[in-house]
């Protein structure tokens, strides 16, 4: 005789989080230097802009785009 098996537990649905958007920011400093930043912890474009400006301080221009 074969040993009895326990009934299989139904697999719970794995909750997968939607990937957070990633942004890239091109920055121009007042002295003419430029830099690129990759922002992973922002909720939206406005949040990404705030993060970049708080990190670098005085900038002449900032351009932010969603990275694909």
Quick take:
The protein is of the alpha+beta class.
What does the model show?
The chain is an alpha+beta fold and 68 residues long. 18% of the residues lie in helices and 26% in strands. A 3-stranded antiparallel sheet has the order 2-1-3, with helices on one face. A hairpin with a 5-residue loop joins strand 1 (23-28) and strand 2 (34-39). It starts with 22 loop residues before the first strand and ends with a strand. The mean pLDDT is 87.
Keywords summarizing the entry:
18% helix; 68 residues; alpha+beta; rod-shaped
Sheet bearing the most strands, described?
A: 3 strands, antiparallel
Low-pLDDT sequence parts: none
CA radius of gyration is 23 Å
Pattern of helices and strands: EEHE
Structural class: alpha+beta
Taken from the alpha-carbon principal axes, the silhouette is rod-shaped
């Amino acid at each position: 005789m074969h040993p009895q098996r326990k009934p299989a537990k139904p697999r719970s649905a794995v909750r997968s989080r939607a990937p957070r958007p990633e942004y890239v920011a091109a920055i121009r400093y007042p002295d003419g230097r430029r830099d690129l930043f990759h922002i992973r912890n922002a909720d939206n474009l406005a949040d990404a802009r705030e993060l970049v400006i708080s990190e670098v301080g005085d900038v002449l221009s900032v351009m932010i785009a969603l990275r694909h």
